[in-house]
């Protein structure tokens, strides 16, 4: 893949959410909903430990992810001082899917964590999406467990928890 003018920015939450919403709508349109658009609001995603990364190519945002350093919802058993980072909401714009940008996001997360002496990256995903699970497994993530969790009074979801040791 050509690297024409690719660069990363940190903290552009609005652009990050825009990429996520486009990816979510693509999956909704295909009949494979992953995230609801209602759950992709800047104010709901922003936390004190969340860093929003956006990959740009020729001044167009193409991919994004959130990296945080605690995750009480999906990994409540881990102490706050753990040396893990948590990858959330990896998304690629429609015109760039299948071109290696998801892997570029993982590579960037690994680079960030290694430079910060973080020993592992953890993520959660839908266990009923075999292609997505295989994507993470092909990049070295190991399935830790699957479980059902209650998000709120009306929402229960199945999740697969993955870990990549660095």
Present the secondary structure layout.
Layout: E1 6-10, H1 13-29, H2 42-45, E2 51-57, E3 60-68, E4 84-92, H3 101-115, E5 120-125, H4 130-138, E6 142-152, E7 155-165
Parallel strand pairs: 4-5
Antiparallel strand pairs: 1-2, 2-3, 3-4, 5-7, 6-7
Model regions low in confidence, pLDDT < 50 over at least 5 residues: none
Strand order of the largest sheet: 1-2-3-4-5-7-6
- Strand content is 25-35%
Distance between the termini: 25 Å
Helix-strand pattern: EHHEEEHEHEE
CATH topology annotation of the domain at 6-119 = Aminopeptidase
Structural class: alpha+beta
Q: Look at the structure and name the CATH superfamily of the domain at 6-119.
A: Gcn5-related N-acetyltransferase (GNAT)
Helix content: 25-40%
Based on CA inertia axes, which overall geometry fits? globular
Determine the mean pLDDT.
92
Sheet of most strands: 7 strands, mixed
Précis, in short:
The chain is of the alpha+beta class. 27% of the residues lie in helices and 35% in strands. The longest helix has 17 residues, at 13-29.
């Amino acid at each position: 893949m050509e690297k024409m003018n690719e660069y990363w920015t940190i903290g552009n939450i609005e652009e990050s959410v825009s990429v996520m919403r486009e990816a979510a709508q693509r999956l909704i349109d295909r009949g494979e909903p992953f995230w609801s658009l209602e759950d992709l609001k800047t104010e709901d995603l922003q936390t004190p430990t969340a860093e929003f990364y956006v990959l740009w190519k020729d001044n167009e945002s193409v991919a994004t992810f959130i990296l945080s350093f605690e995750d009480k919802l999906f990994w409540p058993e881990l102490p706050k001082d753990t040396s893990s980072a948590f990858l959330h909401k990896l998304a690629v714009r429609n015109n760039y899917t299948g071109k290696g940008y998801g892997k570029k996001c993982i590579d960037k997360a690994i680079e960030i964590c290694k430079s910060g002496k973080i020993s592992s990256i953890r993520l959660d995903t839908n266990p009923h999406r075999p292609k997505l699970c295989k994507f993470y497994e092909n990049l070295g993530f190991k399935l830790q467990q699957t479980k059902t969790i209650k998000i709120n009074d009306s929402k229960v979801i199945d999740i697969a928890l993955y870990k990549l040791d660095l």
